[in-house]
Amino acid sequence: MKAVIVIPAFNESAVVYKVLKSLPKKMRGITHLETVVVNDGSTDSTSVEIKKNNVNQVNHRLNRGVGAATKTGIEWAKRNDADIVVTFDADGQHHPDDIEKVIRPIILNRADLVIGSRFKKKQNIPFDRLLINWFANFATLFLFGVLSTDSQSGLRAMSKRAMESIDIRSDRMEFSSEVLLEARRHRLKIKEVPIKAIYTNYSRLKGQPNTNAFPIMARFLVKFLR
Q: Which domain holds residue 215?
């Protein structure tokens, strides 16, 4: 099986080299593993740092948002005959060992979409992140009827069926809930697995601010009312 790790990146020159260096080179059940970084209109030296790791790079001329960058990466994976795609944040928030955890249920044919949940096991998570996650999970359940413990997780895996079925239209952060909505609409098998959350001053600054909850909610409502 071929797996592609998709990493959307915007102005991540401070950490992206280290993140890419930490990625696994092989995994059980995967015969071919590739990484593609979607440089989403970065204005710093992100592109240079990506090239140092000798991985695939796709560039957006302008910053279009994490949803748009993720979709570009998934389309690249589909064109390159991936059986599994994994999305992974560029800011160092995820542990590379957890990639195999989200892939495993797909290899075993137990899921089409696997969400790496930071909230399925007890760990030190800042209170404001807990609050934002609760709000997003509630909105996802209330508007879309999809229950998730971590609807905004950036670490997820999709089977070939999920890649072909899920149509991401949102360009910004709300695309994470849209992925769950699409999976439910196409009756895909969804599974959550616990992952480690790594919160640093850098990743917290790069993450979405608390005030983003309100515009995300507004975009949820627009999509729900269409």
A: 2-225
